[in-house]
């Protein structure tokens, strides 16, 4: 018996270890037909150290030229910081919980990974589709440092030359290298029960599916939505007028559970029956299977007789339970045998949901399920379908929405507000955070605010948009929208003004280079005379506000956190952290913070502290009020 218990324990430990690996490296772990875990050592090595990974890069798909470099990019050092734009670029700064970031979304994701790790419930992105009409150009910054990195990662000269040639080109390999690091970080940001929705068209849908299978795990594929976004069809295709696009859905883990969508007024009309026992409305759904797979031979075990007693108004699977019962079997419209939707086990479990009615036109009894009108929070709901045909989802509707707010025709194929609202509805709860790092026209932010207004919820958005230049002679440029970011910003402002309810504000941050930190990371051998000169001449992050918000990132606090000022330009509290940003008397510090029960950490911004005595006395002073030395941190 003891030996058997050890085997069980050993199996459990192995399962736990495999699960841990699977959570961290989903693309490297799979399950075979017998339910056993399989580790792909090459993919695992790729995750741990891409320079030593034996990965073929001779095509596109899961393996393409530049894959190791793309993986390396996701986890390379970030030399960017956030600059708060607490001016006309923001709205309701002191009260809002929404965030807008101006800059490259890869830099933004690296920053967000520090303070929003596993905190995002839903991500929606509408990335460039990599078509000939797509004006987006991928990274074309091929420098000597890039070449050195590729050599360190083990690339041969011919591959380095190839990667240099495809920088900025619209190739499958270039597009995959662009998307790969962004999706890797996106996965880190998702909560365990979170999900990601990715819009795409025919051009890259196959490649994106394979890439997401690797990043999120193919068993975390939730589904593919087909959206008819152009009912008339696009005339630019030679043979087929394309009328639809796709949205791929992946979950972080199987803890994700999609919710329902609000029923339309027309759908609500079907719930016309009242169950007097529970005072609930319901609609009738035939127990007989309709459509494909409805024949008896399709599922023989789901064909069986049901016995019905008219006087007692009861059903049973036992013939002898009633005297002279009516026998009901599933029949197709042509009189042949069909099948039920439920097997016998389900029938017995859900008999209380069934009712029998005589169908006069067929002069026979039939069985119906009572489908009750349930509430999903404050909303009566129905499950989303994989094929979406609704005028509210089309590009025409989205374009009209955008033009109505902006009086501008810039985006050819924006996404509709209703579509994004529905995606947010099925994937989030009322206080969750939604992320869109390809903000574009700002639809996700607009949809989040409108959904909050409609249902009195408090979802928050984080949107990121690169300051891509608008075309020189474009309508946007004539109206002083010099970048796409300018349009995103203005659309969110105007949408909020129109909604005028709930949190319609946002804090805006710009991603800027931390030039000093970049120099500090160099070895002495790499230092140049110019570097030494710039260390003294380059401006520091000297604004107190700039320092504070970058410290929020360092301490993993949300950018929407409320900042309490204790001593102007010197002492602040955010959540459970005290920030010391300037010299003061030790006794003054202790008097200000003692008695604050929520306090757990003290963070000191060292570059602003000139008094060595303060630093030396700080540890013993804070220990006197119960804060241990490991809760005292020096930054900068």
List the helices and strands and how they pair.
Layout: H1 2-24, E1 29-31, E2 37-39, H2 41-48, H3 67-75, E3 80-84, E4 99-102, H4 105-115, E5 120-125, H5 144-152, H6 157-166, H7 172-189, E6 190-200, H8 205-216, E7 221-228, E8 244-251, E9 261-262, H9 265-268, E10 273-275, E11 280-286, E12 306-309, E13 314-316, E14 326-328, H10 344-349, E15 354-359, E16 364-372, E17 375-376, E18 379-382, E19 387-388, H11 395-406, H12 417-427, E20 433-436, H13 443-455, E21 460-465, H14 475-478, H15 484-499, E22 507-513, H16 515-520, H17 529-537, H18 544-554, E23 563-567, E24 571-574, E25 577-580, H19 586-593, E26 601-605, H20 612-623, E27 632-635
Parallel strand pairs: 4-21, 4-22, 5-6, 5-20, 7-19, 20-21, 25-26, 26-27
Antiparallel strand pairs: 1-2, 3-22, 6-8, 7-8, 9-18, 10-11, 11-16, 12-13, 12-14, 15-16, 17-18, 23-24, 24-25
Helix pairs in contact: 3-7, 4-7, 7-8, 12-13, 13-15
Protein name: site-specific DNA-methyltransferase (adenine-specific)
Family: Belongs to the N(4)/N(6)-methyltransferase family.
GO molecular function: DNA binding; N-methyltransferase activity; site-specific DNA-methyltransferase (adenine-specific) activity
Account of the protein in words:
This protein has 636 residues and is α/β, with parallel strands linked by helices. The strands form six sheets. A ten-stranded mixed β-sheet has the order 3-22-4-21-20-5-6-8-7-19, sandwiched between helices. Strands 23-24-25-26-27 form a five-stranded mixed β-sheet. A four-stranded antiparallel β-sheet has the order 10-11-16-15, with no helix packed on it. Helix 19 links the parallel strand 25 and strand 26 (601-605). Helix 7 runs parallel beside helix 8 and helix 13 (443-455) runs parallel beside helix 15 (484-499). It starts with a helix and ends with a strand. Mean pLDDT is 85; it is low at 1-10. It holds the Pfam family N6_N4_Mtase. Its EC number is 2.1.1.72.
